[in-house]
Amino acid sequence: MIISPRIRNNICLTAHPSGCAAEVKKQIDFVKNNGPIEGTKSALIIGSSTGYGLACRVASAFGCGASTIGVFFEKEGTETRPGTPGYYNSKSFDTEAAAAGLFSRSINGDAFSDELKQKAITAIKEGPGKVDLVIYSLASGVRVDPVDGIMYRSTLKPIGTDYKSRALDTMSGKIISMAIEPAVEEEISNTVKVMGGEDWQRWIDALLEADVLSEGVKTSAFSYIGPEVTRPIYRNGTIGRAKEDLEATGHRINSQLSKKLGGSAFTSVNKALVTRAAAVIPAISLYISILFKVMKDKGLHEGCIEQMDRFFRGMYGGELEVDNEGRVRMDDLEMRADVQDAVNEIWNKATDENIEELSDLRGYHSDFMQMHGFEVPGIDYDEDVKTL
Ligand code: NAD
Is the pTM above the cut of 0.85? Predict the structure, then answer.
C-alpha cells in the first residue's frame, strides 16, 4: 500500500511504517553514539510506544543494555489500513532489540486495567524476573477505572476564569484567538482521575504484591509546568491539577518504596515538545513554535531522545537538577530566564505576516510529520509498504 499523510483538524490519521522505523533507528543511534550508560538492567515502560516513553525504552535498551517490557495502547495496521505510529515504532523497536540480542516484550492494551497489569507481571516473570526501573509515561484522554467501571474523560480547561489567548493554527500558519470557559468541578476531578497519580500507584502496588521489583528500584513519571502565557490553561488548569496529584503520588510512592526495597520515586518536569496532543491546543502550538526558534538559535534545542538520554545519564551516576519540591527539572533550559524573555518578546509581536520568520513553524510542522513517519529523509514514499 502507498501511504500518504491524511490530516484533519490538526490530527494526522495515517502513519508510515518505514518512516517510523527510521525515526526509531535515529533515536537508537543517538543513544549509542553517546556511549554506554551504567544503569537499569531491566525496565518496565508504561506508555512506551511514542514520545517520552519510547525515548526511555530506547535509552534503557540501547544505552544501558536492559531487558525491556513496554506497555502501550495502539491501533494495529490491517491489510487495508495503516496502524498508529506507536504500533510501528514498537514493532521496529522489537526488531532492533532482537537484532542486538536484547530481551524485549511489547504489550498492546489498556494499561489502566488490572488485566494488563497482570500481563505485564507475567512478562516480567517470564523475562528478567524483576525490574529495577518503572517509567510511567501515559498520556490519555480517557480512563476506565477498574474499581467502579466508569469511563472518565480528561479536559484541558482553565479553572475559575476564562482563558483568552493568542494562538496558532499550525496547519494554516495563521495567528488566531482562542477562548475557553472555565471547567466545572466534575471536569476537574475527572481530569485528575485520568492523568493524576492513581493509576501509577496501582501499578506500583500490583508490582510490589507480585514481588517483581528489585532492591533499590527507581520509578519516575513525567510532569510539566511551562511558561506564564499558558499557565491558566496548563499548570493552573485542569491538567495542572492532575499533575499536582501525580507529583504528590510520587512522594507517597517514594516513602513506600524506600521503606520496602530501599527504592525511590520521583517526577521529572520535562521540556515542551510537539506531540499529537499539543497540536490540538493552539496556544501551546504558538508557544512551542516560538520556543523552538529561540532554543535552536541559542543552540539549546532538545527533542524527546536528547531529553531522555540526558535524563538517564543524570539518573545513573550523573547529576539531575532537582527543585525544592523534589522534582527533577529537565525543563531547566526551556525555563531559563533569557529563553523565556526572548519567547515573551516574540509572543507579543507575532502577526500573520512575521510568524514564519519569528517562529519555527517549519520545524514544528516537520516534527509533527516525522512523528507519523512522514517527511523522513531517505524514505521513498512512492514505494509500496506493508501495513501489518
Ligand atoms: P505520547 O502521547 O507521545 O505517549 C503516550 C503513551 O501512552 C503512548 O505509548 C500510548 O500508547 C500510551 N497510552 C495512552 N493511553 C494508554 C492506555 N490506556 N493504555 C496503555 N498505554 C496507553 O505522550 P508524551 O508526550 O510522551 O507524554 C508522556 C508523559 O510526559 C505525559 O505524562 C505528559 O504529560 C508528560 N509530558 C509531556 C510533555 C510534552 O511536551 N509532550 C512535556 C512534559 C511532560
Answer: yes
| CA–CA distance, 59 with 24 (Å, rounded to integer) | 11
Q: What is the pLDDT of residues 176-220, one digit of tens each?
A: 998 999 999 999 999 999 999 999 999 999 999 999 999 999 999
Homologous superfamily of domain range 7-146+186-275+302-335: NAD(P)-binding Rossmann-like Domain (3.40.50.720)
Q: Where are the domains of the chain?
A: 7-146+186-275+302-335
Q: What's the count of helices (H) and strands (E) in the chain, helices before strands?
A: 13, 13
Atom of ligand 1 nearest to the CA of 195: 32
pLDDT band at 280 (very low <50, low <70, confident <90, very high): low
Long-range contacts of 142-150 (CB under 8 A, 24+ apart): 142/194, 143/112, 143/193, 143/194, 143/199, 144/110, 144/112, 144/113, 145/112, 145/193, 145/198, 146/112, 146/113, 146/114
What is the Å distance from ligand 1's center to 50 Cα?
A: 7
- 145's CB contacts (< 8 A; 6+ apart) are 112, 152, 193, 198
Active site residues: 234
Closest CA to 183 of 233, 244, 248, 235: 233
CA distances from 50 to 83, 139, 370 (A): 13, 10, 12
- Poorest-pLDDT segment among 115-124, 249-258, 280-289: 280-289
pLDDT tens figures, 141-169: 999 999 999 999 999 999 999 999 998 88
Q: List residues near ligand 1 (CB under 6 A).
A: 47-53, 71-74, 86, 110-112, 137-140, 222-224, 270, 272-273, 275-276, 278
Distance 182 CA to ligand 1 centre (A): 24
C-alpha cell of residue 28 = 537508537
- Residues 386 and 388: their CA atoms lie apart, in Å, by 6
